[in-house]
Amino acid sequence: MVKLETRDNQFILNGEPIQIISGAIHYFRVVPEYWEDRLLKLKACGFNTVETYVPWNLHEPEEGQFNFEGFANLTRFLTIANNLGLYAIVRPSPYICAEWEFGGLPYWLLEDDNMRLRCTYEPYLEKVRNYFDVLLPMLKPYLSTNGGAIIAMQIENEYGSYGNDTNYLQEMKTIYEQHDIDVLLFTSDGPEDSMLQGGMIQGVLETVNFGSNAERAFNQLKKYQPNGPLMCMEFWNGWFDHWFEEHHERNPKEVANEFETMLQQGASVNFYMFHGGTNFGFYNGANHIENYEPTVTSYDYDAPLNEYGEPTEKYFLIRDVIQTHFGKVPEELPEQMERKAFGSVQLKQRTNLLDSLDKLSERNHSYDIKNMEKMGQDYGFILYETKIAGPRDNGKLFLQDVHDRALVYVDEKYIGTIERWSDNKYIELSIPENGVKLSILVENMGRINYGPLLKDRKGITEGVRFENQFLYDWNIYRLKMDDLSRLDFMDIKPDEASPQSTPAFYQGHITIEEPADTIIHLNGWIKGVVFVNGFNLGRYWEVGPQKSLYLPGPLLKKGENQFIIFEQHGTKNREIWLKKDS
User: Fold this and answer.
1) Helix (H, G, I), strand (E, B), or coil: what is residue 338?
2) Which bin fits 366, alpha (ψ -120 to 50), beta or left (φ > 0)?
3) Domains, in order of start, for the chain
4) Virtual torsion, Cα 11, 14, 20, 23, nearest 10 deg
5) pTM over 0.70
6) What is the CA radius of gyration of the chain?
7) CA gap 488, 505 in Å, rounded
8) Which residues are designated catalytic?
9) Most buried among 27, 125, 186, 389, by the most CB within 10 A?
10) Are the C-beta atoms of residues 39 and 80 closer than 8 Å to each other?
11) pLDDT, the chain, mean
């Protein structure tokens, strides 16, 4: 039986001391066809372990409905790791943060107005138990004690940054033990007094997360855990991006030096991230410290393997440190995946969103505004329609607590945008004698994944007012964008102008002889979502920092490939470009 244990301030595996050199690769951010390639590159860098979170919302998208196929096939990922001779650290938690939508929690928790998250609130714990009753038995055969790759599992994630309900942590530990999870259990927190006090319990190893100043971080850990091995469970060697920001980069030599310092202290290290991957679909999260800040589609993270799975300067410097410290000759890197330029895709057909509502959703009538969660909707967009009687003099239209970005139309003509993070909270308009139809398209740009504002319900969460008068009698359309097959596209005439500020779907096709990775360039497009052969590739937005989208080769096929772009504001072009470079 292979079991990771702690003794004499070090990790012991098979009776021998071990320094765990681990890298985070999230199976759910990488196309399954590339899992082996990324894991081989991890091993070729000299690492002995892979670490991954497990997002609850991916595996139980609707309550009681479970998904472990495709991107969600965790056991296949673990099998590949085991076959390659890698150990695995698995972090179900059930909260993961990870800049992932709602920190991995499923949206349907928020259907309960009284929900309390990550504490001993029994309705929450009941749903965690139900999920773990399915997940943990699946993982049990993959424990190292049963011949599998998993040497350690996390019971909660950075809990001291959220709460101090140690009874809750004890309950999480008990759930694992009831399922006979007999590998090492651990928690991870920032190296601050409050975080360590709130996130630790007896009998569970504590680890720390940081990006620099390892000596201070480990000294803090030793104050609370003097006899445990030192481990940085998240060494932040890069960082993630929000829209409107510059792309984050960290000096590779600085990363390598910090890593070497930790090794010299006898510490184990998990690189967060080793390979970031991509926030496909609508799974990006958001932060809210002072303002709401949604994360971009790319999760490149300035990691040793970039978003495309290519080794960077940081990769080779880290490999050199490992070789010097352990005297280990690095294995040969697998051949790099080919990237190709396929030229332009002509988007020759279009259909307007407001003309296609019945193709995308049923109309739901409600006397009042309802948020997405009350409508049983997870991701995407939601559209609200009502009538405003006239005449009315010029007044202010308020969207009270809109989450997150709303486009407003009067009689299907665009009149303005209201964004959660903007100081502009209203639109001025007057109502003619015959009244108007008011339409409001709201985009869920990602539920908050970290901090005290986790309960981030989407859509319009309070109501819509004209001056002080709340408006009632609404039609509501749930626009999940998970099936576009019913859309009716019409050819665009060559001399026809593109409608500006009108949300529309554009369709085009391209024939490909040999699929390969490529990069989609969207010059002239403003904001929207790209679908390739029915797969939601993610969001784009001209504000940056991300100006292109990574398209992995396995999402293409030999022959004809379909591209649909949902553009919210109109476009200057009717083509996109598939290039080799970003």
Assistant:
1) coil
2) beta
3) 4-326 (3.20.20.80), 343-350+490-579 (2.60.120.260), 362-479 (2.60.120.260)
4) -140
5) yes
6) 25
7) 10
8) 158, 234
9) 27
10) yes
11) 97
